[in-house]
Amino acid sequence: MDLLSPILDVACCLWDSTAKRSVYIRELPENLNSLRTAMEELKNVYKDVNENVDREEKLLLKKRTHVVDGWIQSVEAMEKEVTDLLAKGDGEIQKKCFGTSCCPKNCRASYKIGKMVLRKMEDLALKKTEGSKFIVVAEPLPSPVVMERPLDKTVGLDSLFNHVCVQLEDEKVGSVGLYGMGGVGKTTLLTRINNEFLKTRDEFDAVIWVTVSRSAIVEKVQQVLLNKLEIPKDKWEGRSEDERKEEIFNVLKTKKFVLLLDDMWEPLDLFAVGIPPLNNGNKSKVVFTTRLSTVCLDMGAKGIEVNSLEWEEAFALFQKYVGEDTINSHPHIPMLAEIVAKECAGLPLALITIGRAMAGTKTPEEWERKIKMLKNYPAKFPGMENHLFSRLAFSYDSLQDEATKSCFLYCSIFPEDCEIHCNELVQLWIGEGFLDESDDLKKARDAGEAIIESLYHACLLEINYPNYNDYTEGLTKCVKMHDVIRDMALWLACQNGNKKQKRFVVVDEGKSVTAQEVEEWKGTQRVSLVSLTFEEHIESPSFPDLQTLLLGNRRRLFSLPIGFFSYMPNLAVLDLGNHFELDGLPVEISKLVALQYLNLSSTGIRKIPMELRNLKKLRILILNNMGRLQRIPSQIISGLSSLQLLSIMDCWQATKGDCRGLLKELQGLTFMTELSISLCNSVVLPIQTLLNSQKLQRCLKHLKVEQCSDMNFLHLLFPYLEEVELSSCFKLKDVILLHSEKEAVHFTFPRDKYFNHLYRVTIHYCPNLIRLTCLIYAPNLKLLYISRCNSLEEVIQVEESRVSEIASNLSLFSRLRILSLLSLPKLRSICGQSLLFPSLKLMHMSGCPNLRKLPFDSNFKVSEKLVGIIGEQEWWNQLEWEDQTITHQLTPYFMPSRPTIEQKRAKSKKNRRSHHSIATNT
């Protein structure tokens, strides 16, 4: 037995091993079926996982996780392995020993396959379990450096786009502000800049777009940045503004980024948001769009204005949206299309809106009908109210107060493309009562100027200086409304938004109205009629609510019908200016008891009716260029107890000779503040009256003296004087403040303050004038025009006592923009000392043969504002220069002038004398 035990143990072990291995062989068919079933179950899980991945990748733009991706690939590989294994297993089962049904021919091969099947079933079960546990199969994609934004092909922006790109490449420029009126293409330009970074995405780590809109709320901008920078929400959600700022700062300080801010209406504190300082070190950039140019200034950005398109570009954009088929559908349509496109005045949003509305309009009759609608009732034109005016009105809604809004809407009552003189506009606003400071004219003017500036910076008004080459009028500041902005303003004013109330009635030049239309104006507040013609006789109108009546430029208005003013009890502003043939005022003008502003300039009125003195609320009376006006009867002016401003320029018969009576009436008015007056012929006594009255001294703003032969010296002790014009003052030698301190009875200002407000001096044909040294006391002088003063040798004589010292202290001519010296045959010097002229725009020298040197030395630098120096080529060639570098600096600005008729005559006379001398000698 002892010998048999080990043998039996070995035999048992061999049996157990053989029995286990036989199971792999014996149960192979069954295990193969189980493997097939397990594979099918895994494939079902695989399909579920794959469908989830596809959905999240395609619809949610996510990316599958690495774990899921590895699982899918392993299942796909495993399926191939299982297929191969099943094929081998099925093949072994088919191989049987001859005459048996279960004995395989190759037991070893069957054993190996059976063992592999069981292991593979375990792997399948594990993969199935893994697949069933997937909760997250995909994660959000990392944000691209630049997100492309939808953009159609732009028209007319290439040069501006290139200019912006140059600025962005400049390391000294950290931020750029694109400003301009609504609908001009600022967002389109910013979008193009954004998409341009797709081509150079490696230059920046992040290009981020944020639409800011009305309120520049720091929290809103922070949230957009936190999301786009993929900062986990648990780090900022529910945190304070400072904590969010730190998170943004810590991410952006390591990146080179571009931040694009669209539609900003107020300055945004970038530091409070978390934006690192923009400097040469990180080379990051900020670009934003705004309708307010002040936002660029407040944010320290390089401001670039986006203007309306030039005509060719505008018409190309318009045709693009109308469509080629429509444009070519009839030979007359291209010409009609030009008419429509010009109504848009180059504003892209208007061109696109109206272009889309005209698409498919293929007959000339339809085009003509829509043109009429666009001109007369633009708000009714398809798309104008909902897509254009409503968007432009955001600028109006954002104005700071009701006074500014009223002043803006008021500008729309002027004719289309009208250059509105700022001075006249502010006077009208004062008359309307828009300005709270209207009791104080100086404060009211300042408030009016501030409103003009704010409307300009809001891109709702354009500012320019027309007639720039007219040297006597080159400083006239004017504003103008873009045509589409004006249409929007009239839409707001006439309909008050959605309310159908005609508060404004504006009839532009060349239009006519019927009596029925006039009848419909009864409830209106403001009426502006320019060059209007009536189709029929109009009875005296009844406008109980009318506050403003502007009847400008109706040249055929010979007289106003009897009773015209009888039913306008609330009229505050009446402008009859430029009615050259209007020869009188009806007596019922006295019924305009609420009138505060009256303009009769450039009319043919001969006599002011005595009834005018009953206008006790009248504050502004303008009587300029009334050549036929006779002397104003006494007691009319003194009866205007509220009068603050009187302008009576170029009314030679009314102010000719001794007009002391008029001046004394003005002196007695309590509220009188501003006086502009022309004096003619015997002016010594009227000027002495002005000088003897401290009140009139302070009131005088504009003085013109002409055709005077009794005055050797003109004393100008007027501390608020702004403009002086002297013409044909034959004996005048000098313009002075005073000969000595004792001569000034009312000398209440320091000597050097008396010309502090003087900005314009015009002197013509004063043959005995020898100097104008008094101008050293005019530090704010902007225009100096002197012509035909044959005795003038030097404008400023520095050898006079204290002149050099005072000129230095007051920065002589430091604000002078225009200097015109014409036909001054003896002039040899402008000033004996050198001057800088830092504000000079234009210098015109003609007929000054003895002026051989300009007051420039080596310290002179060409003003950035300089446009040109006009003079004869011969004169320019003979100039003597202290420093030749000055010649090189100024030569590019020199523009040869044509000789005047007088110069031609003088040259011809000289040539004749020369020929005569030669002939005599011969």
Give a verbal description of the structure.
With 922 residues, this protein is α/β, with parallel strands linked by helices. Helix content is 39%, strand content 15%. It is built from 30 helices and 32 strands. A 16-stranded parallel beta sheet has the order 11-13-15-16-17-18-19-20-21-23-25-26-28-30-31-32. Helix 22 (636-639) links the parallel strand 18 (620-622) and strand 19 (645-648). Helix 2 runs parallel beside helix 4, helix 11 runs parallel beside helix 14 (348-358) and helix 13 runs parallel beside helix 15. The protein is elongated and about 150 Å long. The termini are far apart.
Indicate the proportion of strand residues.
5-15%
Number of helices: 30
Which value, in Å, is the CA radius of gyration?
Answer: 44 Å
Topology, number of strands: 32
Poorly predicted regions are 10-17, 739-747
Q: How would you sum up the major sheet? A: 16 strands, parallel
Strand order of the largest sheet: 11-13-15-16-17-18-19-20-21-23-25-26-28-30-31-32
Please give the share of residues in helix. 25-40%
User: How would you state the average pLDDT, rounded?
Assistant: 85
- Structural class assignment: alpha/beta
* Intertermini distance: 175 Å
Coarse shape: elongated
